[in-house]
Write a structure and sequence with these properties.
Elements lengths: L4 H11 L6 E3 L6 H14 L1 E6 L7 H12 L2 E6 L2 E5 L18
Parallel strand pairs: 1-2
Antiparallel strand pairs: 2-4, 3-4
């Protein structure tokens, strides 16, 4: 599923109010990091990741690797912060409810 520019812009607007829920340490992209990212995406769908020192990887490369590993879309990369989105059809939604990333 490829996202349209309009959809991506909408998610970027929502992401402005989010704080990073997943933090990548100096070990970089580890199994534990991907597991916690997968959990966060399952419950919230839209997640910010704060990157530490990633060795030779740029923030965009790290974002691409994380997105591919958890089957998510990269919404934006700003400095060392990456925003990812993955739709979860199993989340219960009612009309008028706030989106799952608004906690």
């Amino acid at each position: 599923m490829t996202m349209s520019g309009k959809e991506r812009a909408e998610f970027r607007a929502h992401a402005n109010r989010l704080t990073a829920t997943v933090h990548a340490g100096q070990q970089g992209i580890t199994g534990a990091l991907l597991h916690s990212l997968d959990d966060a995406l399952r419950t919230r769908e839209l997640v910010k990741v704060a990157l530490g020192k990633q060795g030779d990887l740029s923030a965009k490369e790290a974002a691409g690797q994380m997105a591919a590993a958890v089957k998510a879309e990269v919404i934006q990369v700003i400095g060392k912060t990456v925003t990812l989105y993955r739709h979860n059809p199993k989340l219960e939604r009612k009309r008028g409810d706030a989106p799952p990333w608004v906690v």
